[in-house]
């Protein structure tokens, strides 16, 4: 398949959607991003990458980092993680805290903030430095040694972090955080602040399309584990719109409020799309539309 | 692939699980089923069917009927349905009523009871006889003209139906049921009471593997619609265990408290497994295990 | 104290509030009431009654009936009722169904609809005709043999009764209704439909000020029971505004969406005020203001 | 009335209840208290105080402090407080966080932890030292200059304070805390740690029986404000048992998990009872029973 032609076609079809939605406003560093940006990149399982638009321009990965921290913990720790975090969709967002209470401090899945805090806590215990561990991994997989944290974003997240602090203390009250709450929050915010381009992310997520093999051919996850990360991405990866995303796109995906979405066609390729305007549920409007066009054009929905 | 050999192997592996869990107790007709039953059938896209164990023995389809009523309404009515029912997973079951209240009487998805009542209401409006319409469809697709309602089950469900009546009246208070509540409940209970074997159900669900084509080659759903029903099955088809089912099995599936599960390998085949012992979330213990073995043996998870 | 002068003063002070708020709209018979009505009556413990404004004009008692059904069941059945209904305030209304679910079908108190349905169910079991029993009681206590049900209101409530039907079926699913759901709903709606004036209600509620003695001097409730009904009125009698009512008025009270409020000064008198405009929580705007003025003028708050 | 004789009689009647329930376990300093303690004190409006049993033995006031911080803020700030905290009962405890979310960070009332944190935050803003302000007030009213914080308790509360930290950060995310979260938590924990005897507390709460007048005759609260604090105590003062407390005791009261309860007979006297064994809702078993006997013996329920 001529990937470049497909991406060009996707970019042409999605044009009317670019700029729609609302750029994340809760911290200045995100609010100042140009709403009209759009990029998409595709990396095949052999590591060839191509793209369109702003596909080489870095943006804030935000919650996309949750997919990588999950993979890193599963790689090191296996199934034990599931004693501390579930893998069920979380229903509507307003329930987050009552669900934590109802389920004794066990988050529903690793992709809601509560679950990602548990994953980060575990990665911190396993490595002693959760955020640097992730940055090193992303540099290696993307082949981009210049990847870095965005300090302004990290500090700003922390300053606006009362809700995450509330969730973290709440889980700590159930004994489900093992490191000090401020330590966990700090590594969590630094992970979210990493800046990457569509190109970087499509390459970094390559192991999910290669059934667990890293860029250098070594194994990060078993075939079964890699499929399972994809399953969690499909059922829980796009906030409270996972059902809609499965319905429209039909691929495992993980989105972030920076406007990026990573999506996986198992055995074929990893995509990353970016456009900052978000819908009411926090997913990129043009990004979802682009992936919808992509699976329609290629027929590569998993269904 | 030698399907018969695969199913034999699955049946051998699953043996220790048969009889585990708890047979549904809320109505006598279900409670009296022998817990040690186990059957599995596979129908390929050409309509060849094979099976193992109790695969030709009828059981109560219960919630598996929800997949068929959804398909029948989408076939007739298209996307309009989604104004009255969502397609997001519902989170934990205890939230069902508060979610309905929070979301103004719009159920989260067509596979929770609330959503299936809306689908049945719509099918009733479209056809004038929702339960007979479904029975006729199932007879045609399975090639089994003897399929029938189990009157004892239907009457018994109705007699124990206060919780469904509560949900139905609650939605009616938001104007989201158009037929009289007792009519909707009656057709809903009759649909659930249909008796079918694994063989019947694997054949009847064939259109989901054939991207929308019925047994006679005519089109029920467009390719895109068929994929979308599969997407809803994967994200919402197994009660509050959809994430776990995606993680372990990795196929679209729909379960019922009669102990049956229908699962789809898009483009290849439809399976139906049956064993009455249920886990805490209402899914067949041996059934889920059998499908887990099946995808491990074949590598046919969608991920 | 010159009650007539006090009521005149209250009526003068409350004038700017009359007509404020919103007349109940959910059934036509209530929606057509003139918003500018206002009446207040005071019956002392000797049965002398005086009033101002529209104090002799009948209106729909609605939820005020809940105080009488509670008293009738306690009189006959004593403390046993509390096994089936609690006596704690219910928090915000949006929780009603989730609370019922969390607390296994036991309503929080007898003055939310769920609790009143349980009380009506018990009264039906005890008497065979809950609504007529209440009507007879109210006729006797008010000395007004012409009191009657308003059939138009009762039928209309029933036609708009899906939410109450949902609550009733939900409790039935927990075994907390003993009569058929339609029977309980019917008697509940008929009780709510009774038409009474402020004069009638102030007299009918006299036993609450007389520590349990009826108008004819016979005992309905023990002194202790009467105090306890007052306690439940104070903590739960005005929907989700009981705290505010206690804060501003400081008397046990029971309101209805017809715009009436009965309030009790233990040992001294019973008041009834009526004005149809309701605040956002369903209590009469001018009614609450009038009682606030009354306790400020007299110093007769229980605190 | 011979108060000493009444208290002796109460103490005799309550004997079988002493030692029942469970001493608070969440911090060692509370868990080590002798479960068999019981004391009760009564201070009349003239400041004469009498008592029985362990009435002069200090214990940890815990949530009883919430009544004093509320009074101190109302005295200084008047009705403005109610923009930041409600005065409605909170329903069952499991809803605390979802209610905060549903109501945009406004706690239901000043006696749940969330509300008391807001009150402490305001007192801190008004005085610059919320906990010392309260200690000085309690010393003056009780006439006991030796009252002190229990440092072990305060430090221990802080070390086990993740749930309160969660609530505080959650409100901060809505802008409803104006001082830094750690500052507010610290003053809150120190207030709770104050040690007082029944004698001290009965005297310190005298202004509530004297309609707002302090021990030295100066006015802390207006008559109307004092009544209103009593109203909030009656509807919200005993956790999720306020309805039951009103039903059985019929007096405004505020309890703490140290086993103390302060209750007010407006215009007559203030009582304090102490016994460390708590019921499932956190109120002293023998304490509630003693107050129940007291109002039965004296007839001094407000109802």
TrEMBL record, chains A, B, C, D:
<feature type="binding site">
    <location>
        <position position="239"/>
    </location>
    <ligand>
        <name>substrate</name>
    </ligand>
</feature>
<dbReference type="InterPro" id="IPR015868">
    <property type="entry name" value="Glutaminase"/>
</dbReference>
<dbReference type="GO" id="GO:0006543">
    <property type="term" value="P:L-glutamine catabolic process"/>
</dbReference>
<dbReference type="GO" id="GO:0004359">
    <property type="term" value="F:glutaminase activity"/>
</dbReference>
<comment type="similarity">
    <text>Belongs to the glutaminase family.</text>
</comment>
<protein>
    <recommendedName>
        <fullName>Glutaminase</fullName>
        <ecNumber>3.5.1.2</ecNumber>
    </recommendedName>
</protein>
<dbReference type="InterPro" id="IPR012338">
    <property type="entry name" value="Beta-lactam/transpept-like"/>
</dbReference>
<comment type="subunit">
    <text>Homotetramer.</text>
</comment>
<dbReference type="Pfam" id="PF04960">
    <property type="entry name" value="Glutaminase"/>
</dbReference>
<keyword id="KW-0007">Acetylation</keyword>
<feature type="binding site">
    <location>
        <position position="188"/>
    </location>
    <ligand>
        <name>substrate</name>
    </ligand>
</feature>
<feature type="binding site">
    <location>
        <position position="63"/>
    </location>
    <ligand>
        <name>substrate</name>
    </ligand>
</feature>
<feature type="binding site">
    <location>
        <position position="164"/>
    </location>
    <ligand>
        <name>substrate</name>
    </ligand>
</feature>
<feature type="binding site">
    <location>
        <position position="257"/>
    </location>
    <ligand>
        <name>substrate</name>
    </ligand>
</feature>
<keyword id="KW-0378">Hydrolase</keyword>
<feature type="binding site">
    <location>
        <position position="157"/>
    </location>
    <ligand>
        <name>substrate</name>
    </ligand>
</feature>
<dbReference type="GO" id="GO:0006537">
    <property type="term" value="P:glutamate biosynthetic process"/>
</dbReference>
<feature type="binding site">
    <location>
        <position position="113"/>
    </location>
    <ligand>
        <name>substrate</name>
    </ligand>
</feature>
């Amino acid at each position: 398949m001529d990937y470049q032609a497909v991406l060009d076609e996707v970019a042409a079809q999605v044009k009317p959607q670019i700029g729609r939605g609302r750029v994340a406003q809760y911290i200045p560093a995100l609010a100042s991003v140009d709403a009209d940006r759009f990029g998409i990149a595709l990396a095949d399982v052999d590591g060839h990458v191509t793209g369109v638009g702003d596909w080489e321009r870095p943006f804030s990965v935000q919650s996309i980092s949750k997919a990588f921290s999950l993979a890193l913990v599963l790689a090191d720790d296996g199934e034990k993680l599931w004693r501390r975090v579930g893998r069920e969709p979380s229903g509507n967002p307003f329930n987050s805290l009552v669900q934590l209470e109802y389920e004794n401090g066990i988050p529903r899945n690793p992709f809601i903030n509560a679950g990602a805090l548990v994953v980060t806590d575990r990665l911190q215990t396993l490595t002693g430095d959760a955020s640097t561990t992730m940055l090193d991994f992303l540099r290696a997989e993307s082949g981009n040694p210049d990847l870095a944290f965005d300090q302004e974003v990290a500090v700003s997240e922390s300053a606006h972090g009362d809700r995450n602090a509330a969730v973290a203390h709440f889980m700590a009250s159930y004994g489900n955080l093992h490191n000090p709450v401020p330590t966990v929050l700090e590594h969590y915010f630094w992970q979210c602040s990493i800046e990457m381009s569509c190109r970087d992310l499509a390459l970094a997520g390559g192991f999910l399309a290669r059934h667990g093999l890293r860029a250098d051919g070594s194994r990060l996850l078993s075939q079964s584990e890699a499929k399972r990360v994809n399953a969690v991405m499909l059922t829980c990866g796009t906030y409270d719109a996972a059902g809609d995303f499965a319905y429209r796109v039909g691929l495992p995906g993980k989105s972030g409020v920076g406007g990026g979405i990573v999506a996986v066609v198992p055995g074929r390729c990893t995509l990353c799309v970016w456009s900052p305007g978000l819908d009411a549920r926090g997913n990129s409007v043009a990004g979802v539309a682009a992936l919808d066009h992509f699976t329609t054009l290629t027929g590569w929905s998993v269904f």
